[in-house]
Amino acid sequence: MSKKIESPDDLLQVGLKDTWYAICPSSFVADKPVSMRRLGMKLVLWRDEAGKIYALEDHCPHRGAPLSKGILLGDRIACGYHGVQVRSDGVVTNVPGSPGCSLEGKRAARSFHVVERNDAVFLYNSAENVDEAPDFTLPEELVSDEYGAFLCYTEWRSDYRYVIDNVMDPMHGTYLHKQSHSMAEGSSEAEFGVRNTEHGFIFEKKGQRGVNFDWTEWADTGLHWLRLEIPYPATGGPGGSFAIVGTYTPITENLAAVFHWRCRRVSGWQRHAWQFLYRNRLEARHWTVLEQDREVLEVMEPDANQRENLYQHDVGLVRLRRHLRNLAAQQLDTLQGKAA
């Protein structure tokens, strides 16, 4: 059952509407219906014979049985409880137990637009059924042939907003990750500034670049994503700095879907060299760094962000929190206006 949305915080907790979210790796959806909780809902995803992916709320409009227990019929699912057939756009196409009843032809189920990119499934979290969804843009590291990228997916027992705060905080790398092979350099003190970009902003250390985890970028290009770079020594292989692109999705109130693409600017033989080096030497180290973040975030109290004493290093996350809350407040006004 979806939680009633009464405040901007309620909306943020389950994810903003009319926004794209990464919801799972592509490999999670194979030849059978898959049920998963995301964005305050229970969803069913499946593929047709050609491999195209679809998504509905995992709720039959007849009696609420999970459609994920049904039978696949191409772009439709026949509910396993009473055989009601629901098309990918939410329209009930057949009620075998009562042909011609008022449910047939009705768009009675919640449907969602989904696409696959960079080994992940993205879903448009529309406030209501829409015939078409706007596109979204991924950062250069995930669309340019000049980069190679690996998707790293995990689930953390934490509010997804704590994960966003963590990435929006470059200074924690100097302390939490100080033993890392790539984050041991640079000053343990810093002054930060904010620089606007076309789609968001960059929060960066003043006077230090290319030394440690020195900056984070947040952007809204239909999908909300964050980007950072970690300088690498020559022993880290070709490609210069190591880029990380992240996006984060609520599963439940205290469980987050965490997507990180690990990227290097490499092509030709260098791409193959880096891929080999990554799998054999670097990947385990990167998982160690992620585990350090996870261990901290998973034991933070749910109300930790209500009892803070922030200072200059936290300007970036304060700005982002305020921006997201304003977006949520605007959306809530719109949703409540439609309801009225």
UniProtKB/TrEMBL annotation:
From the Swiss-Prot or TrEMBL record, give the protein name. Answer: Toluene-4-sulfonate monooxygenase system iron-sulfur subunit TsaM1
GO molecular function annotation: 2 iron, 2 sulfur cluster binding; metal ion binding; monooxygenase activity
Query: Which gene does this sequence derive from?
Result: tsaM1_8
Which intervals hold domain Rieske?
A: 20-123
- Kindly give the Pfam families that the UniProt entry links to this protein: Rieske, VanA_C
InterPro entries given in the database record: Cholesterol_7-desaturase, Rieske_2Fe-2S, Rieske_2Fe-2S_sf, VanA_C_cat
Q: What is its EC number?
A: 1.14.14.-
The record's keywords, sorted A to Z, are: 2Fe-2S, Iron, Iron-sulfur, Metal-binding, Monooxygenase, Oxidoreductase
